[in-house]
Recover the amino acids of this structure.
């Protein structure tokens, strides 16, 4: 096994051991299912939300270890939800990783400015999701 791959797998195992609960938020049932599939090998508890407001409420009540969130959603979008999560003492410690079709350089910069830790572009491979976890 190449050293780089071995290091990524070792880091991923350590990160995933520390992560017990993941909130995934997307207005598309298909995209929620794809995220579930990408995260199925983590053995984490997966909680779902369908919009930004629901993600904020579930983040406060469930206290997930990380949030994967779409940007473009009806009502409160992912950017606004991320800002709200960063501003709340109850949720400001929870890392947010955007998973979105908006993944140009400007989108990545804006995502970081909103407080996100990373942005994974759609469509993605499952290993890109787990690599984002390892990057925390």
């Amino acid at each position: 096994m190449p050293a780089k791959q071995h290091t990524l797998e070792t880091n991923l195992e350590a990160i995933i051991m520390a992560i017990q609960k993941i909130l995934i938020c997307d207005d598309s049932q298909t995209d929620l299912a794809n995220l579930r599939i990408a995260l199925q090998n983590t053995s984490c508890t997966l909680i779902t939300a369908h919009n930004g407001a629901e993600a904020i409420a579930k983040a406060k009540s469930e206290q997930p270890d990380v949030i994967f969130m779409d940007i473009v959603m009806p009502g409160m979008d992912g950017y606004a939800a991320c800002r709200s999560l960063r501003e709340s003492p109850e949720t400001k410690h929870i890392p947010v990783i955007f998973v979105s079709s908006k993944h140009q350089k400007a989108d990545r910069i804006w995502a970081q400015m909103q407080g996100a830790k990373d942005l994974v572009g759609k469509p993605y491979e499952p290993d890109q999701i787990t690599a984002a976890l390892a990057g925390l």
Remarks:
- The radius of gyration is 14 Å.
- The mean pLDDT is 88.
